[in-house]
């Protein structure tokens, strides 16, 4: 098994598959997550091949763009890796990374764990934070036709997985329902450090947003 060749073929496969993807979940998102994963993995004892495959394939068929189907991504990844004659143990590991990497409301008990999943999960979550995270959040909100902000609609901090998947709340609510929760859910020291910096930037952004809007909602925390 030529690992470098498989990584190159995986890059090409993912880039082509996501050619027309929504701007926050496209090939550029994958590249950023891969970069984050490499940075985080440098400080951990990991299987770098699994980390890179997991980062490259983690959003190959995001359920948000496939009628909520969470099985499509793992299936596509499995079929591709089988075509590259990747060992079954590695395929199973990557498939589990894809199954469990997403937030999905943050209340679902994770039934699989590995340091490789922790690295890819942190890498993906970092791309939901900071300036890029803000841009991706508003891009997705526009894609779904959501309101920017409604002071009368309070964030739901205790959503079930299904409520999270079906939410149509204004984009600003997503900061509270997901983005601001990620800092304390990072798995690795490097992930936590990078998340702190990006979290602070998002808090500053919201302060300016409310100042320009002319209204700070009652449910905003100091």
UniProtKB/TrEMBL annotation:
Protein name: HD domain-containing protein
Pfam families named among the record's database cross-references: HD
Domain named HD: residues: 26-129
Source lineage: Bacteria, Pseudomonadati, Bacteroidota, Flavobacteriia, Flavobacteriales
Gene3D superfamilies in alphabetical order: 1.20.58.1910, HD-domain/PDEase-like (1.10.472.50)
Record SMART domains: HDc (SM00471)
Family matches, as InterPro entries: HD/PDEase_dom, HD_domain
